[in-house]
Amino acid sequence: MRKSWLLVFALLAVASLFGQSSIQAAVRVEDGPLAVELDGEPSCSRPAEYVGFRLHREGDVGQPLYFSLSEMVDELGNTFPRDLIVLRTPYYSDELRWESVFAEHLLLGAEDGYVDLNLGVHYTELIPAGTYEGQLHSGTGEVVPLRIVVGPFTKVVVDPPLVTIDANAGPGIYKANQSVQVTVQANHNNWILRLSSEGLFFQDENRAVKRHLNEPEETVRPVPLLFAEPYSEGGQSEILQIGGSDYPSGAILEFEIHAHVGWEHRAGQYMGVVKVDVFIEE
User: Fold this and answer.
1) What confidence tier does 87 reach under pLDDT thresholds 50, 70, 90?
2) Per-residue confidence at 57, pLDDT binned at 50, 70, 90?
3) In the CATH scheme, what architecture does the domain 154-280 have?
4) What are the structural domain ranges in the chain?
5) How confident is the model over 250-261, as pLDDT tens digits?
6) CA 184 to CA 193: how far, in whole Å?
7) Is the CATH code 2.60.40 the one for domain 27-150?
8) Sheet holding 85-88, edge to edge
9) 141 Ramachandran zone, left/alpha/beta (phi>0; psi -120 to 50)
């Protein structure tokens, strides 16, 4: 009976020690939660976005704290690349990276009541827009919540920016000298692209001479610009709308430019631009 009581007492003492250790090792982040926001265009030359924070020990000193980095996952299950997350600490001369969920690094020394750290995130590649959440966690149960917010990014390039036709064979349908290629790069599929034009305008070779002589310039109505998909029987349209839901990974689209030249249009070269409006669906 006496041995049983001694065993119970020993177990309670061990549990008490572990409980005190956990309380002593508890930490908090000053001005938390820890969050980094990434907006704009990713680039290999873009510097890392850093956020400074102070990690406090909520108890007595005496225990070094090593932390691992969990997976950073958004609401759709996308994972933020862990190799893009770095940490600067006074305990290491180089920036730290967590190569895997099992890697751990010292964040708070045994004799320190607090430490100033800098968490950095590199935005060098296209990452799906969303809010990625995870945590820095230690083997003793301490947790530092971490959030990375990647804003929606949409980039559109139209090539060539100027469209020209040579209308020298009388009224009729003319094709532009070259097709137009529209390249869309985005980290989301909520984008809507609308292509339009104010038309193609007559290029008067004698305009400069007329201005010099103060002669009136002849007004020529612009030629409407029409979009047509190559090898398609879908017809022509003055306004073309494209939705990202059909192109979740971006798109490279090519269109022919047609123009209806009438008797009211002078023979010669006409030039205009393709207008691009980008909308984001809520």
Assistant:
1) very high
2) confident
3) Sandwich (2.60)
4) 27-150, 154-280
5) 788 888 888 889
6) 9
7) yes
8) 27-29, 49-57, 114-121, 85-88
9) left
